[in-house]
Hints:
Number of domains: 1
CATH architecture: Roll
CATH superfamily: Electron Transport, Fmn-binding Protein, Chain A
Oligomer: single chain
Radius of gyration: 20 Å
Low-confidence stretches: none
Structural class: alpha+beta
Number of strands: 7
CATH class: Mainly Beta
Amino acid sequence: MYIPPFNRVDDHDRILTFIADYGFATVISADGGNLVASHLPVLLDSSDGEWGTLRSHMARANPQWRHFESGNEVLCIFHGPHAYISPSWYAMQHTVPTWNYGAVHVYGTPKLVDEAALRQIVLDTTERYESGMVVPWQIPLTESEIGKMLKAIVGFSIAITRVEAKFKLGQNRSTEDQEKMLKSLQVSTRRGDNELAEFIAAQQAGGVLE
């Protein structure tokens, strides 16, 4: 990923937080000269190694999981908030539009897991996202029913080998331009603008945009 110096993020904890917060990732692998991508909920286990391990699952009918048997490197792209930025939001408007966003690329070595590990992935994924519900859903299925469903999916882990993080949030603009852009995003009614504004404000609070 092309990352100008002022957009690069190296802070370990901030990157891991981003991965955990924006866990619906694009998982990309290669089969010879052909690239294949799947869009999957991906869990981060940060307790193993410098960057940790990713865990996920996909349909057994999806042929991509067979790529993981080779042990070749895969790429997981975690997408954060993003939005179109109008020059009209700047104090200095003699410029061009752009698109601001946060994204993290995670590279690693995949490995298929056994049924016990797959079951834990499913349980952990459910708990991760149900925990935010007002009334969390509880799995009503019998062990037999769960076993049948597990046979229809494949679980895998990815040992993270390297990470690239880019927060393109107008760091190359003047302080005045950045402030006007943020205020415009905050009052905008366009989809995604408010979320990007919240993300930018959080990075400012954490000292990333200083």
